[in-house]
Amino acid sequence: MATFSDETPKTPVTEPIPAAPPTAAPPAPVAAPKKLRPTRISGTWIAVLVAIVVLIFLLVFILQNGGNATIHFLWGQFSLPLGVALLFGAIGGALLVAVVGAARILQLRRQAKRPVPVTGRPSTSAPARRES
After folding, report:
1. Of 45, 78, 84, residue with least CA distance to 65
2. What pTM does this model have?
């Protein structure tokens, strides 16, 4: 009968793992596909799709708010569906913002076209920038 002594190792002995054979050259990196820049046509299609979604939401809004509302404006009195009246109000607000924005753009364009004075002094129309 075989007896085991305390001299037997309790952990298994592992053989060293042979090193992998050296390769001739590292694999060539795969070129990433060229990222395409968005074009004007793709931007137009995105704008058209967004406009369609907005129009669908507007149509649903108008159809759900079909009850009549009496509108008093200046000396007139009108009876319109509530959704249509709110849509007219939104269009009026958008036109007001567009007129103010267009006036500011024209003002900036006129200022940009002015000739620069040759005196060497900075213009007084805009504050000078401070360097930090």
Report:
1. 84
2. 0.49
